[in-house]
Amino acid sequence: MSDQRQITEPVGTADAPQAGSTADFGREAPFMLDCGVELGPFTLAYQTYGRLNADKSNAILVCHALTGDQFVAETHPVTGKPGWWSLMVGPGLALDTDRYFVICINVLGGCMGTTGPKSINPASGEPWALDLPVITLGDMVRAQKLLIDHLGIDKLFCVTGGSMGGMQVLQWAASYPEKVFAAIPIATAARHTAQNIAFHEVGRQAIMADLDWCGGRYLAEGRNPDRGLAVARMTAHITYLSEPALHRKFGRRLQDRKGLTFGFDADFQVESYLRHQGASFVQRFDANSYLYITRAMDYFDLAEEFGGKLANAFRSTPVRFCVISFSSDWLFPTAENRDVVHALNAAAADVSFVEIESDAGHDAFLLDEPEFRDTLCGFLNGCAEHRGLSFP
């Protein structure tokens, strides 16, 4: 049984999304992490949208990606920009908040209110930094379940998310099939490839090479490894796009100049774009959280948890699946999504699969892709009918 001590702002009592909702766990019964270390107490920060119906059967959990957070469909409190999935979550949208109660939880190890490396370690009174135990995707999902249980939701109508969010969806379906009616993993995989681990390692090394990283204790030193974190973000951001998308958006066009400078300023628009992405990222994200969350993705291998055979993760599952990939995604290509589908087929699961034609790359799930939107709507509507959900 969870040891929940505090929850700020009651859920499902207003149409407007609530700000700053948090819940504390693990005071009397510490949370056992996969690394074998107990963690407690710890805080989960989350946001909710829409209303929970009387029998609590309309809840959708949205799992965010590596650099996302719980602010899925509202103005972000740090950047002032729209939520990262505001095209999909809201009244009348694919995840219709006039119908569904949508929950998004900042992952364990994050930096937007959930316990992470910049949180205060109660034992020392200073930020955890690298003293925080290493977190896994399994840890993140078990922590999320504590919150879902506390909200009194016996069974989620749907769990969905893209990229690392999709990994969490697969972990939810494998670990708690009785708690999930439908699952929509998007642009994801059941394990991280060597190439993706390699990209993450480049980013981590960029952060740790920054002299302001201070062995991870930069907050206590009043410093921040902005340059290293910016380079990590720039490197990762390239993997989220496709070559056609980069060419269409930038080509070899120059940035605010008529000719080459024969120097190392940002001559090309694509250089300026990447520098902007890096500079804006450091304003809202913690460098150590980047280390922890990328490592959690690297460690993810769902088949390994089930005797090395992915189908065993879904044996006799009652969950209804819709797996979605994008044709130009080379970070989590269609082949890896098909591997999940093949495992679900081998387990005799109820699964549909759609590859969306798009040249936008991995980030296509964040963009206005009509076929993607229609797929989500169609699958959710079918699941709602099957479960007997009625809407006004």
Structural features, described:
The protein has nine helices and 13 strands. The chain has helices at residues 137-150, 164-175, 194-209, 226-240, 243-249, 269-281, 287-299, 334-346, 370-387, and strands at residues 6-7, 21-25, 31-32, 38-39, 42-49, 59-62, 89-90, 95-96, 101-105, 156-162, 180-186, 320-326, 350-356. Strands 1-2-5-9-6-10-11-12-13 form a nine-stranded mixed sheet, with helices on both faces. Strands 3-4 form a two-stranded antiparallel sheet. Residues 1-19 have low confidence and may be disordered.
Q: What is the string of helix and strand elements?
A: EEEEEEEEEHEHEHHHHHEHEH
Give the CA-based shape.
globular
* Overall strand count: 13
**Residue share in helix:** 25-40%
Strand share of the residues? 15-25%
Give the distance, in angstroms, between the N- and C-terminal Cα atoms.
35 Å
Radius of gyration from CA coordinates: 21 Å
> Which strand order does the major sheet show?
1-2-5-9-6-10-11-12-13
Structural class call reads alpha/beta
Mean pLDDT: 93
Number of helices: 9
| Largest sheet features | 9 strands, mixed
Low-confidence spans: pLDDT under 50, at least 5 residues? 1-19
